[in-house]
Fold:
Amino acid sequence: MLSILTFLPVVGAIVVLLAPGDSLKKGLALGATVATFVVSLMLLPGWQEIPDMQFVERYAWMPDLNIYYHLGVDGISLWLVLLTTLLMPIAVAFSNQHIKQNLGGYLALMLLMETAVLGVFLALDLVLFYVFWEFSLIPMAFLIGKWGSQNRIYAAVKFFLYTLAGSALMLVAILALYFNAGTFDLLELQEAGLPPGLQQLAFLAFALAFAIKVPLFPFHTWLPDAHVEAPTAGSVLLAGVLLKLGTYGFLRFALPLFPVAVADYASLISFLAIIGILYGALVALAQRDLKSLVAYSSVAHMGFVVLGIFALNEQGISGAVLQMVNHGLSTGALFLLVGMLYERRHTRLLKDYGGLWASVPIFSFFFLVVAMSSAGLPGLNGFIGEFTILLGTYRSSPFFAVLGTAGVILAAWYLLHAFRQVAQGELTNPANFKGKLPDLNWAEIGQLLPIVLLFFVIGLAPNFFLDKINPSVAALEVVQAPADSVELLVDSSDQPPLTSGSSSLTTNH
Amino acid sequence: MDTALLFDDAVVLLPELVLAVGVMVLMMVDIGRRGQNGSQLLAGLSVVILLLGIGASVMIWGRAPVEYLDGAVSDGFALSVRLVILIAGVLGVLLSRNQFPAIERQGGAFYSLYLLAVIGMMLMGTATNLIVLFIALEIFSLALYILSGFYREDPRSIEAAMKYFLLGAFASTFFVYGCALLYGAGGSSKFTQIHETLATGGGNPSLVLPGIALLLVGFGFKVSLVPFHMWTPDVYQGAPTPVTAFMSVGTKAAAFAGFFRLMMTALPSYHDQWAMPLAILAVLTMTVGNLTALRQSSVKRMLAYSGIAHAGNILIALVAGTAAASSAAAFYLFAYAFMNIGAFTVTIAFERQHGNENDLEQGRLAGAAERFPVLAAAMAIFMLSLSGIPPLAGFFGKFLVFKAAVEAGWAWLVVIGVLNSAISAYYYLRIVVAMYFQQPEEEADEREPSIVPASRPSVFVVAVSVLAVVVIGLQPGLWADLLRGLGQ
Structure:
């Protein structure tokens, strides 16, 4: 099941490359992504709300070396898998409309990327994970470098080298873990436990790779370049899916494998996340280019996710998982909207727009809803995610929670600012007049509608999603330890058994 | 001497014998067809001989390792190395076929020297005796000196041959002197005997370290470790490209095989002393190789420096000095054979596209993906594999070597290794960027757009290499199982 899910896009990519004619290629690519989405939906009926891995597959890959082809999905990865498979057909549909040059290659690369990303979300063997992780760079670098805008080569090379260099040390850490425990299997490593000294070093190596991918301040410099230069569908996938690989990595690998080191570094990383939230928001506020604005907003929003993860309690982490999905949906939709506007007017500068509500009401309506979702309006999905994260953060550190809340306010500010600049005010630029600037067509509405509907579904029925996330989150060791220590504090005022980081977290109660 | 001894275990050297007979046949055929032009027949014959050699290796695969006359052994490691060299040999011959006037004119000389080089290289992997080791080294070195000067009209080819010969001869003297010192230290030219003598406190231990140092110079020259690498770019650039392609893989495989066997069977008790100097050499080799490759504009020179960096990676396996490390090195060389020869093949094809110049600037590749999508895609795969991006063969070569090194306690060396890999990605990526992302300069459209501007044999080489790089990458377990290290 999971293998079919993972490799169906590759099959699609090969077929697309071999197929004659652009219209056939378009249909096949869309068909492959939709089929993948359908397969991924089939995970839901048989889903059990338990902490364990489900739909596990395990075969020997390099038996001499103890390397296994080991896939599985749990509450943490389930929604990310579904997010990926949902965004893919939308991105393909958008590209089908707008990409003219070398369409087959473009679609094949997108499909290859889907496989790589799904592989990362599903792999339970560190070597297998590393293979997918590194491989995901190639399609994205090609998408940016070949189909991007003016400065694309610089952006593609920077993206590729930055993230490649970041994960180089992770390979050494993986080997060191193997040397210590004799296995590359995540679950076995988790059971074996690791000596604290090794945890510190290995955590730093893993964290560097993940922090660059997220991107966590101050490792974010590749992101605006990559986003601004990437073609729209590339941006959608970059923001929607690829950034999640970093936060997912923290959750899946760093937290379970290095609980001691995580507790030590939690404050530092939360601090960086806070800087990222405030810095990203302020820089977004100052942007004149709509796409860079959305790109910097990603830095801020991903900061929230990291903040939630390193709150190290159930609310924080569950909220972070949900917020990953939310951010994927809302930022993905924002990039789609920017792309739709750009295809019409070939400019992304805010000053070229204004008053669009009068000329393109449907576009403006979608823009408003998506901006509200991104800003965390209650009733929509973003609110649930941010609220749960801040709740969790408050439990571990009220100070960070206050600063995080300031970030929410800033987010509302820059998003409304963007909306005001684009849609409200006087319609002055003649190129934007009604009739000159066509409104969204049915195909484009079809691409946005599933996302917008999900905003409401998640916003109004969050428990359907959280119930599947929670068991896996509650099973994390780092979550359990502080929770126990809270009781300890209440019962006997003993110092909690964990080291400095977590004790500083608990004393804040 | 009992003559039965001579033949009893001769099967150990079956692949070498097959090739030796083959060389004689080839020379006879060449004499028989004097005066005719073209060397299609000879190239075909060479391929057949090399394939027979592969067949012979497969035939004796899995036999209990027997030592032949105290001089050569046919264990798993020797067979793995043979396989690498023979594959590199076949691919190299296919490359040279039908493409180069100089080779066409003197096919007999070219192909018999070529096969002799293959024999010498294979012998080097089997040698268990200082004398055999040296003879093997000289057989393939002499053949390669001549082959690199095969473009007699091209001054750069002559310069390459001259440089290679003079420096190579110099390195050989160091090597011989090192052998002599080791013989003095251990009282025998046999590896295992040297080890026994030294381990039991006999012999003359004070000669061991000077001996190792001198041998290291000789080996370092052959596999182009920094600081003995100066000849490499000039020779790679000047020599006929098929020879370069073959040499870059074959010489490395042979010299590393000999080096591994010598250090691990004759001098394991001195591992503590020789590991650290080799580790420093590995760091130097990787770093200097990569940093210099960054600055090259010629594709062949870039590949030459990248070859130096790869030698540094393989040296990490020797530093670790375990059985697992030697099999990792065999895997690495196996993967390297395909990706490197593949890269050279595409380079030749592009060279021919640009009027048969024997050198290609990276800038000329701009926009190549538009005109030659298949070749460009193949080149991209080779480049990504060389830089160690999974799931391609090159990644698992590095992975296995690094894993063996971490297990042997050389984590810091591996850290430097992976950082170097990240540096190397930059110059490999530059080729991909040029082919895919950059627009060609004018003059492009006057040429007929063709899918593959290469001869049929080179297309075959590219296809086989791409297939191998991908298959090895997706199913590394299979090959890691097949390729054995020392004492496995």
